[in-house]
Structures
1.
Amino acid sequence: MFVELIATIVAGIACAGLVMLLNISTGRRLPKWMMPVAAGLGMIGMTISNEYTWYARTAERLPEGLEVAMTVDEQGWLRPWTQLWPYTKRFVALDVATARAHQDLPDQKLADLYFFGRWSPVNQAPMLFDCAGGRAALLIDGADFAADGTVSNADWQAMGADDPILALACKG
């Protein structure tokens, strides 16, 4: 966040500097308001660029074994350009490298989900997937595992057959 703030300020100074050089080269014929307007437009442009490139930069730096399962695009009326070109504000990554299954219940997979959001800390939660039943349960509320791999006290939620998180967890 701090680096993006510095980049935005530098972009404003750079745009104002370009207008200043253009003004000097034209014999100071440009209106005085051009420099602050150029600085403001440069800062707005840098902010928009950071919004649209956040997802690609973050997903690119994911450690090996984490795969993006789902993205959430954002549109807002305060940013009218997002009505035409929404940007990714949140995404969910699944840790496929450490996903595991009990030998007696191969259709159930246990994996960690990581929730990434713009301007938000990364959250992690273990989730149990029932691939045959098309359902999943977050294991943050104290589910109990028996020796045979069965789970009690799990709050199972039905997931659609086309759910990208379930598909990624159950593949392979």
Note: The two ends are 38 Å apart (CA to CA).
2.
Amino acid sequence: MANRKATRITTLADALSARRVLHLKDAAALLGVSEMTVRRDIADNPALFGYLGGHIVPAADIDGDAPYELARAADSHAAAKREASAHAANYIRPDETIFIDCGTTLEYLVDLVPENYPVTAVCYALNTAQQLARRRNVRLILLGGVYHPSSASFSGDAGLETLDQLGINVAFLSAAGVDLARGASCEHFHEVPIKQKVISMARENYLVVDRSKIGKLKPAFFARMSAFRSMITEEGESTIRGI
């Protein structure tokens, strides 16, 4: 058993050395084991591997000083995040342009885009972009800039300038904290300009979070609750006034 595990670790490390990023499903297929086994191998070897919203990366690529790592959040409240995304998917319509925020909640939304719906999807997170790129019915627009490993996202003027050229029908925003008096906030300040610009441009804005985020206030404030048409959690949709 120990020898098999050691062989898996070596094989996974070699694959990451060549590819830098490996989807969990692809890693399981490569190693001939279940995804749960791969997750355990990752958890047992934090010095070698990091986990970013469904993707495995070298531990060196993770910003260890970041207070909120995507790797740490990936499995937190996973079922609730999946349910929240399922409710949000009701607002995906064919032949429209949607914006999908970074983080670990909305990555579930990608798999819920109906295959018979041609859509244009805008994002700025690597994990989300890689998932969207697998969808034949999705035209992907990835906002570029400086890459931030802690949130697997990009920021900078290039992404903001690209937004100026787009028409966004529906924006799905995520947050690390939702204070009903103050508003929505996140851990990383580099996300704020993109979130705010998208909110100002989109025809409809929805805040998609699991209920564990409610009552929390994080350092990077980006919008008051009135900026959103509604908040969507694992329990469904709530109008801002009714929250």
Note: The chain has two domains: 2-61, 78-242.
3.
Amino acid sequence: MHIMTIEGVPYEWINQLQEIHAHVFDGANLPVEKLERKEGLLCLMAIEAKRIIGFKLGYIHPDGVFYSWLGGVHAAKRGQGIASLLMHQQHACILAMGFKKVRTYGRNERKAMLITNLKHGFDIVSTFVDDKGRHKIVFEKLLE
């Protein structure tokens, strides 16, 4: 397995990225147009045998903080540290880009991600209810 990092939309991998996104997020669609609208999009993909087995997407939030947006690992590959590896690589990339802080949102329904964020030094800084009525937990981490 290796990690591939692409700045911008990973057009060559888009079908596989959409497939794994749907797998991780209960069939949810990830339109190319949505990716194209994200300023400073950074895409990390865990690749094994020419297949994406995990991914992490982020972009520059309008307030200038790097926002770690979406990520996940194929169910058959969970528990092997792939999400942590993707997170570490993302943080190294954005630190090299000059960012000092990373932010992400979590939901109580996705406890594994909440735990992963806490284990990797994120702090809970606030909560809010999004426009779909879902409670979100805001995590931030200072990068070193």
Note: DSSP finds four helices and seven strands in the chain.
